[in-house]
Amino acid sequence: MIFMWPPLILIFLILSIVSINHFPLARARGQWCVVSPSCGHGHVDCIPIKPGGPCFEPDNLRSHVSFVINQYYQYNGKTEKSCYFSNTGIFVFKVPSYGDCEYNY
């Protein structure tokens, strides 16, 4: 004998499984996202922005993040989505390279 679930119970079970898998448990425990110490995940090389690297100076957040965002953008298909970063990335049309600091193209 084959057991058939009533449609409403089946829908309830499926929605329950989906919602359990998407509970924001991480927020309840506290979870944040910061740059990895290795900064190499996603094929982003952070060596140039580390002390002594060609893109370390100027030593400020905007300069370092711009370099990393550009690497991410270049590696991920140069799409609008890969430059979005919650509306903090922007497109520029002048080469941002300076001195020995070379931005990929």
Please characterize this protein's 3D structure.
It is a lipid-anchor; GPI-anchor. Its main location: membrane. It comes from Brassica napus (Rape). This is X8 domain-containing protein. InterPro entries: X8, X8_dom_prot. There is one protein chain. About 6% of the residues have low confidence. The chain has three helices and no strands. It is globular, with a radius of gyration of 22 Å. The chain has a domain of 67 residues. Helices cover 33% and strands 0% of the residues. It starts with 6 loop residues before the first helix and ends in a 30-residue tail after the last helix. It has 105 residues and is an all-alpha fold.
Quaternary structure state of the chains depicted: single chain
**Spatial shape:** globular
Question: Per DSSP, what share of the residues sits in E-state strands of 2 or more residues?
Answer: under 5%
Spans of 5+ residues with little confidence (pLDDT < 50)? 18-23
Rg computed from alpha carbons, rounded to a whole number of angstroms: 22 Å
What key attributes describe this structure?
105 residues; mainly alpha; 3 helices; 0% strand; X8
Provide a short characterization of the protein structure:
Pfam families: X8. The protein is mostly helical. Helix content is 33%, strand content 0%.
